[in-house]
Write a structure and sequence with these properties.
The protein is α/β, with parallel strands linked by helices. 48% of the residues lie in helices and 13% in strands. It has 31 helices and 20 strands. It has an eight-stranded mixed sheet with strand order 13-12-11-14-15-16-17-18, with helices on both faces. A seven-stranded mixed sheet has the order 1-2-3-4-6-8-10, with helices on both faces. It has a three-stranded parallel sheet with strand order 5-7-9, with helices on one face. Helix 2 runs parallel beside helix 4, helix 20 runs antiparallel to helix 27 and helix 29 crosses helix 30. The chain is globular and about 85 Å long. The structure holds 3-hydroxybutanoyl-coenzyme A and 1,4-dihydronicotinamide adenine dinucleotide. The site of 1,4-dihydronicotinamide adenine dinucleotide has 22 residues, from helix 14 and helix 17.
Length: 722
C-alpha cells in the first residue's frame, strides 16, 4: 500500500465519486468504491455511508475496479469489503422508483464471479440483500465474528433477491436452508453462517487483514476462482413436494399475497437447471414483483418509518438527554409490558407500586413472561437472568430520584395521575424526563401538576407493550424539544417505532380508530353481521377485524369512555347495541363472549344472538337492513380512517400523512403491503375518487361523512384518477 503503483491503480480504476440525493431526507451522500493494493492483492472497498447501499456509483465502481484488477498482471487476487459498519445493505431502495441506470447489479455480480483471479469477500459488517448477493458472487467469504446480519430481506420490501441470490444461495447452503432465509427475510449471524457454509472462515479481529491473508493463501496454494453458478443442484437431492409444501405453508405473509410465493418459485427454478436458465426465471419473477402495488407500498413503508424518526422542528442540534436507567410507576398490564421492553434493551428498571400485593402480582407476571420466552427458546436462560437482575422492585417512591426517565402507568384517572406527577416533581432528578402512558388524558393537565412542564411528555405504548412496535410520543404545549428527542432515542433503543403526535383526545391512532369503529357499528345496524365485517377486513389484509379487536381490548372499556366523555348524539345512537352488550357482561374475550363467542383456547365463532340484537335495534331505529358487500365494508371503514387522518394533519397533531401510515402499520395491524390508510387513499383509490364517494355517503348518511376541509383541498388538487 502507498506505492506509486497503488496510486496509479487507484486513479485508473476508482470511478469519480457520485453524489446521490437521498430521496426522503434531501441529504447528500457519496457513492463510490476505493481501491488500494496490498502487495499482489487488490482491496476494493465499498463506500456509500451510512450502509453502503449499492447505488449507481458503487455498481459502476465495483465493475470498473474488478475489471482493472483483472487487467493488471501484478494483481493475483481481489478482496472486496465495505467501509464502516456495513459490507452493504443491498440495492439502493430509493433508486427503485426512478429505475436503475446501468450497469445493473446482476451483471456486475456475474462479472465479479467470472473473474479469472480469485475474489474474496471480507464481510466487515451487515451484508443484506444485494450486499449478500455481491458476497455470494465472490468465490470465497471471510466474515467478522461480530457480524449479526447476513441475509436476503428483499421479501420484506415486496420483491425477491434479484441479483442471482435465489440461484446462488441454494447452491451454497442447500435448498431448504436457502428457502428459510429467503422466504422469512430474516438475517442470520456470522457463527450460524459458518455452520451452513455461507462463509468459509470467521475473523476475530481485522477482517480485511484476514481476507487479504485468505487471498494470499489461495494464491500460494494455487487455488483459483470457485464460481458458485457452475454448480448444479441435483433434482433428486430435493424432496419432490418441498416447494408445493412451502407454498401451501406461506399463509398470510407480511409481504402480502405475492412476494413469498414468488421467492419459492425462484428457488424452485434453481433446482436441476443451469444458472442461466434459473436466473432468467428469477428476473421474470423479480419484474412481476417490482411492478406490483405491494412492493411499492412496502418500500414506501420502509422510508415512512425512517422519516418518522425526524421531527420537523427538532433538528440534529437538539441532543437527547442521557438515559441510563428508567422508572416505571404501576406494575399493571402496561407497566409490566413497558418494563419488559426496557429490560430487553438493557435498561435497569425501577418499578414502583402502591401495595406489596400489586407489586408481587406484577413481578410474577413479568417473570412468567421471561420464563415463557426461555421455554419457547426465544431467549437463553443466561439472557433471562441478565434481564431479571436489572429489575428493581420497590414501594418507595423516593427510589425514582435515581432514574433518568420515569414512565407512569397507573390507573386512567386524571386526579390520580396529577397526584403521581406532583410527587414525581418532588423526588425526580433535575432533567429527568417524566412521561405518562395515558391513552385519553390531557398531557398539559398532567404537566400542570409539576413545576417542570418542559420535562413532561406522553409515551403512549400499545398493548402488549413488550410486543407492539408503535410508540406514540405525545408533545404537550410546554414539552421541551430535548425531552421529545430523548423519548425518540429511547424508542429506538427498545426497538419501537416512535412517532411524535400532538396532545388531543385519543392522540392520533385512537382518534382515527374511533371513527372507524363507529362506522362498524353503523354497518352492523344496516345488515352486515359482526363476523362478516371481521372477515371482510381480514381478507383485505388487516391482522384482526374490528369486532375481534374490540373483544380483545374489552367492550367495557369503550362503554366506560362513552359514559365519561361527551360524544355526538349520532355516536351514542350507533353504539346502543355495544353498550347493551357491555351491560349484559359480554365484555369480550375475557368473559368468553362479546361480539363473538370464545372457547377455552380463545377461538372465535359467530354468535347469531348478537346479530339479532342489531336487527332489533335497527328496527327500533327504523333502519332498513340489506346485504352489504365486502368492498363496501372495506371502503367505508378505510374512508372514515382517512378523513380523520386529514383532520389530524390540518390540526398539526401529526407532521405528515406518512406518520399516520406508520402509526397504523406499526400499531394497529394495518398491512404494510397496503402502505397505510393515507397511502391507500392517495395511491390505490385516488383522492378525487375517495372524495366523490364520501360526498355520496354524506348525502346518504349525513354529517358523519362530511369530508374535512383538508380532504376537500387535497382532492381538488388531485387529478381525476389520483
Ligand atoms: N437502500 C437505501 N437506503 C437504505 C438502505 C437501502 N437498502 N438501507 C438502509 N438505508 C438508509 C435508511 O433509509 C436510513 O437513511 P436515513 O438515515 O436517511 O433515514 C439509513 O440508511 C440508516 O438506516 P436505518 O435507520 O434503518 O439504520 P439501522 O441501523 O436501524 O438499520 C439496516 C440498518 C438493517 C441496513 C436497515 O436499514 C435495513 O434493513 N435496510 C434495508 C435492507 C434491505 O432491505 N436490503 C435489500 C435491498 S433490496 C435489494 O438488495 C435488491 C437486490 O436483491 C437486487
Ligand atoms: P392496570 O389497572 O392494569 O394497572 C395499573 C396499575 O397501577 C395497578 O397495578 C395499580 O396498583 C397501579 N397503581 C395505581 N395507583 C398507583 C400509585 N399511586 N402508585 C403506584 N402504582 C399505582 O392498568 P393498565 O391497563 O396497565 O393501564 C395503565 C395506563 O396505561 C392507563 O393510563 C391506561 O389508560 C394506559 N394504557 C392502557 C392500555 C391497555 O391496553 N391496557 C393501552 C395504552 C395505554
Amino acid at each position: 500500500m502507498g506505492s506509486t503503483f497503488a496510486k496509479r491503480l487507484g486513479r485508473a480504476i476508482a470511478p469519480r465519486p457520485e453524489f446521490a440525493r437521498d430521496a426522503h431526507r434531501g441529504s447528500i451522500t457519496m457513492a463510490k468504491v476505493d481501491v488500494r493494493t496490498d502487495g499482489n492483492i487488490a482491496v476494493i472497498t465499498i463506500s456509500n455511508p451510512p450502509v453502503n447501499a449499492l447505488a449507481h456509483g458503487v455498481r459502476a465502481g465495483l465493475d470498473a475496479s474488478v475489471a482493472a484488477a483483472n487487467a493488471n498482471p501484478a494483481i493475483k487476487a481481489i478482496v472486496i469489503t465495505g467501509e464502516g459498519r456495513a459490507f452493504s445493505a443491498g440495492a439502493d431502495i430509493a433508486e427503485f422508483r426512478a429505475g436503475m441506470k446501468p450497469p445493473g447489479l446482476l451483471e456486475v455480480i456475474d462479472r465479479i464471479e467470472a473473474s479469472p483471479k480469485p475474489v474474496v469477500a471480507a464481510i466487515n459488517g451487515l451484508a443484506l440483500g444485494g450486499g449478500l448477493e455481491v458476497a455470494l458472487g465472490c468465490h470465497y467469504r471471510v466474515a467478522s465474528k461480530s457480524v449479526t446480519q447476513l441475509g436476503l430481506p428483499e421479501v420484506k420490501i415486496g420483491i425477491l433477491p434479484g441479483a442471482g441470490g435465489t440461484q446462488r444461495l441454494p447452491r451454497v447452503i442447500g435448498v431448504e436452508a436457502a428457502l428459510d432465509l429467503i422466504v422469512s427475510g430474516n438475517p442470520t449471524v456470522a457463527a450460524s453462517a459458518l455452520k451452513v457454509g455461507l462463509v468459509d472462515e470467521l475473523a476475530d479481529g481485522d477482517v480485511v487483514a484476514a481476507g487479504i491473508a485468505y487471498a494470499r493463501k489461495l494464491v500460494a496454494d494455487g487455488k483459483g476462482p470457485r464460481p458458485t453458478s457452475a454448480r448444479v443442484i441435483d433434482k433428486a437431492s430435493v424432496p419432490a413436494d418441498l416447494f408445493d409444501k412451502r407454498a401451501a405453508a406461506v399463509g398470510r405473509h407480511p409481504s402480502g399475497p405475492m412476494a413469498a410465493r414468488h421467492c419459492i418459485e425462484a428457488v424452485r427454478a434453481a433446482v436441476g437447471t443451469s444458472y442461466k436458465d434459473g436466473v432468467t426465471q428469477e428476473q421474470k419473477l423479480f419484474s412481476e414483483l417490482a411492478a406490483s402495488p405491494y412492493a411499492r407500498a412496502l418500500q414506501y413503508a420502509f422510508f415512512a418509518e425512517r422519516q418518522a424518526a425526524t421531527v420537523p422542528d427538532i433538528g440534529a442540534d437538539v441532543k437527547p438527554r442521557e438515559v441510563k436507567s428508567v422508572g416505571v410507576v404501576g406494575a399493571g398490564t402496561m407497566g409490566v409490558g413497558i418494563a419488559l421492553a426496557l429490560l430487553g434493551a438493557g435498561f435497569p428498571v425501577t418499578i414502583v407500586e402502591q401495595s406489596k400485593e400489586a407489586l408481587d402480582t406484577g413481578l410474577k407476571r413479568l417473570k412468567e413472561t421471561i420464563d415463557n420466552a426461555v421455554l419457547r427458546k426465544r431467549m437463553t436462560a443466561d439472557e433471562a437472568m441478565k434481564r431479571m437482575v436489572l429489575v428493581r422492585p420497590t414501594l418507595d417512591f423516593n427510589e425514582l430520584g435515581k432514574v433518568d426517565m420515569v414512565i407512569e402507568a397507573v390507573f386512567e384517572n386524571l386526579a390520580l395521575k396529577k397526584a403521581v406527577f406532583a410527587k414525581l416533581d418532588q423526588v425526580a432528578k433535575r432533567g429527568a424526563v417524566l412521561a405518562s402512558n395515558t391513552s385519553t388524558l390531557d398531557i398539559d393537565a398532567i404537566a400542570s401538576a409539576t413545576k417542570r412542564p418542559g420535562d413532561v411528555i406522553g409515551t403512549h405504548f400499545f398493548a402488549p407493550a413488550n410486543v407492539m412496535r408503535l410508540l406514540e410520543i405525545v408533545r404537550g404545549t410546554a414539552s421541551d424539544k430535548d425531552a421529545i428527542a430523548t423519548a425518540m432515542a429511547v424508542a429506538k433503543r427498545i426497538g419501537k417505532v416512535g412517532v411524535v403526535v400532538g396532545n388531543c383526545f385519543g392522540f392520533a391512532g385512537n382518534r382515527m380508530i374511533e371513527e372507524y369503529l363507529e362506522e362498524v357499528q353503523a354497518l352492523m345496524l344496516e345488515g352486515a353481521t359482526a363476523i362478516e365485517i371481521d372477515q371482510a377486513l381480514e381478507a383485505w389484509g388487516l391482522a384482526m377485524g374490528p369486532n375481534s379487536m374490540m373483544d380483545l381490548a374489552g367492550i367495557d372499556v369503550g362503554h366506560r369512555i362513552r359514559r365519561e366523555h361527551k360524544f355526538s348524539d349520532e355516536r351514542m345512537r350507533l353504539y346502543r347495541v355495544a353498550d347493551a352488550l357491555s351491560e349484559a357482561g359480554r365484555h369480550g374475550q375475557k368473559t368468553g363472549k362479546g361480539y363473538h363467542l370464545y372457547d377455552a383456547k380463545r377461538t372465535r365463532t359467530a354468535d347469531p344472538a348478537v346479530d339479532a340484537m342489531f336487527e332489533k335495534e335497527a328496527a327500533a331505529q327504523g333502519l332498513e337492513r340489506r346485504k352489504i358487500e365486502r368492498e363496501e365494508i372495506v371502503a367505508r371503514c378505510l374512508l372514515r380512517l382517512v378523513n380523520e387522518g386529514t383532520r389530524l394533519i390540518d390540526e398539526k397533531i401529526v407532521a405528515r400523512p406518512s406518520d399516520i401510515d406508520v402509526i397504523y402499520t406499526a400499531g394497529y395491524g394495518f398491512p404494510a403491503w397496503r402502505g397505510g390508510p393515507m397511502w391507500q387513499a392517495e395511491n390505490a383509490l385516488g383522492l378525487k375518487a375517495c372524495f366523490d364517494r364520501m360526498k355520496a355517503l354524506e348525502a346518504a348518511y349525513g354529517p358523519r361523512w362530511k369530508p374535512s376541509a383538508a380532504f376537500e383541498r387535497a382532492a381538488s388538487r388531485a387529478h381525476p384518477g389520483g
